[in-house]
Amino acid sequence: MKLTILGCHSATPRWDAHPTSQVLEIKGHLFLIDCGEGTQVQLRKCKVKFARIRHIFISHLHGDHFFGLVGLISTFRLLGREAELNVYGPKGIKEAITLQLKLGNSWTNYPLLFHELDSKEPELLFEDDKVSVASIPLKHRVYTNGFLFREKPGERKLDINAVKEANVNMSYYHKIKQGFDVVNEDGITIDNSKITLDPEPSKSYAFCSDTVYFPEIIPQITNITTLYHESTFLKEHQELAIKTKHSTALEAATIASEANVGTLILGHYSGRYGNYEHFRKEANEVFENVELAEDGKVFKL
Amino acid sequence: MKLTILGCHSATPRWDAHPTSQVLEIKGHLFLIDCGEGTQVQLRKCKVKFARIRHIFISHLHGDHFFGLVGLISTFRLLGREAELNVYGPKGIKEAITLQLKLGNSWTNYPLLFHELDSKEPELLFEDDKVSVASIPLKHRVYTNGFLFREKPGERKLDINAVKEANVNMSYYHKIKQGFDVVNEDGITIDNSKITLDPEPSKSYAFCSDTVYFPEIIPQITNITTLYHESTFLKEHQELAIKTKHSTALEAATIASEANVGTLILGHYSGRYGNYEHFRKEANEVFENVELAEDGKVFKL
User: Fold this and answer.
1) pLDDT at A16
2) For this protein, what is the EC number (chains A, B) (predicted)?
């Protein structure tokens, strides 16, 4: 699982501070999460093979999270894309995009499917045999969702020595990896746990931005591998966080701690701060494993 | 008159090639012409004091000419703008922008006025005592206008020696500069042309992009100081120019020559070309004073 931060700054794009967008590579998928203005340029700069993106998840319809989407969709058309593109985002996103394409008389020549969200409960948005994606309802000034990406458990691993010793025919190996008990060459039933090892633990990633401190999300993200949680402000600006429905670094870390996540990544910094190490320091008061998002930074999760 | 090229490349934004946008500084005005994705970042990079922009002219509703507009409008809001902003562009532009602002629950806190265009004849869009702006109907795949910016003639210049010699009272100087004849201290009427010099010649700038070769514009732009004319292609790709309703460098230069303009600036290059000097060379076949637009380049006109 690889997370590329294309942009992690709040509000207006600046020369050296890009608005929110990330790419999550997981089990062969390339998921794009949010798409602020300039995302298509960041995708090129970060050398993401963006034709491989088939699913785009938009948290909410503030400009710094979605003004780059229509440009990316148009660029896909100009590059001759044929593969289907799925866009998941708040109700209204379809009209906003299609109106602009229509005005430019430039509809896409590939299937563009919108999945509009308006539920206040978590929903399963995408699922295949390797991964699932669910929404995480957040609390912000407009309707907003985070997204929870989960690898499905892999197959059990053959314990080759044990299998050989148990005298099991090779033709059963596929069944064994799926967790079944099998009968060996001597007619004896072999318990699956005796001849297999646990698969690699499944990984999971939650993106939570933008949101006020909202502990209601904790049950849904408990024990996940990595949490990206917005920290627009430091606690010295707590009143601004409440007013604008954003979180402080301390609040993000409190969520991470209560949910017992593996690692917390902070981002969506307000432009008022110079040194982002203050965010880490503040978060470290209640949670140890804190990373700072940076534009262009890649996290191997 | 100062022209800053923020972007001069066609179609999709790239790391080193920005879509169309320019700032024209003329008689104290800062006019923004087109607004492709990333324009607000280019404005910062080029150190344009963009709070001073009060009029934005959008040629047409293809993404590479207007996908940056909604972001710029939002940024003005975040920066606390209070001054009125006027947007001139094709019918539909108001709905595209307001829908997106509405979805983000973020209407502007400054007056935002749309002037939607649908005429196929030139129209006067803006005028004050120093400058006028008119539309130049072009011919492209969607409804498109160029824009003609004209300084109004300045006041006549006092020929100080002649004025003194003519024994004219200082209190008449303002009238003299306005072109009136005056009576001197001896009661003699002094012909204005004897005591004044011609003002600096008025300058004019026409922006013509995007368009197929369209000689109908020549009468409107005859004798202007500077013409920016798109040259998406070289003549070796004439058939592509016709198909996509763009121009070649040769065609742009032919327009410049027929209209007897002072200088031709070429731009809106297709991404297929590496060396833009080929555009200048091709244009020079029929027109001498050719300049090449470059992102970030400033022309003093």
Assistant:
1) 86
2) 3.1.26.11
